[in-house]
Amino acid sequence: MLPAAASAAETIGQTAPPSSCTAGEAYTQGILTTGTSYSPSAPGVITSWSSFAGSLANTQIELLVLKPNPSAGATHFIATQRDQVRSLAQPSALNTFSGVRLPIEAGDRIGMFLPSIPGAGCFFNVGGADTGLFYGGDPPLNVDSDFTGSNSSRRLNASAVVEPDADHDGFGDETQDACPSSAAAQGACPAAHKKRCKKHKKKHRDAQAAKKKTCKKKR
To answer: What is the Cα–Cα distance from 118 to 124, expressed in whole angstroms?
Structure first.
């Protein structure tokens, strides 16, 4: 069976001119009152992501994919994917990184880790009950981490484009996979080979039957 028809890509998260954050910590969104969610509505692949740089050039951010772990607590997450560390070369501007392939499930949440270079803007300020969460360190993959730190009236300064991945090959169907119906190919789908049925000739036995003579018994 072919995969079901894929839905369109969606953009998750929000960006805006940020405030600087402490290096060596990981951040994600807690309570969000309005605006675009930081979680996709369907599974797919992150193919690009963006963050708004502060006034300093070449600050660094690493994008994370975090799976909520509610059985352990409301602030517990398991990091399932991480991008490479990216430098925000353009200060006071939106920096976008493409060519990314990070699988993400519906309900997972994007986050970020700030390496040792200080000055990157992880949150931007808003009013209301929104909260930013943080974890003291770089969360290891596939291990529960408790984001116990909390900042009020903050939103995570990150957004990501999530493309569908109908054949589950880890390539986004809209910009990275020209053959979304087969995990064996990402370029053009191989041409289908039609099977040719051999025609079986009917054997006419009438002629053979005519050659058979009935033997008469001699008295």
So the answer is: 16
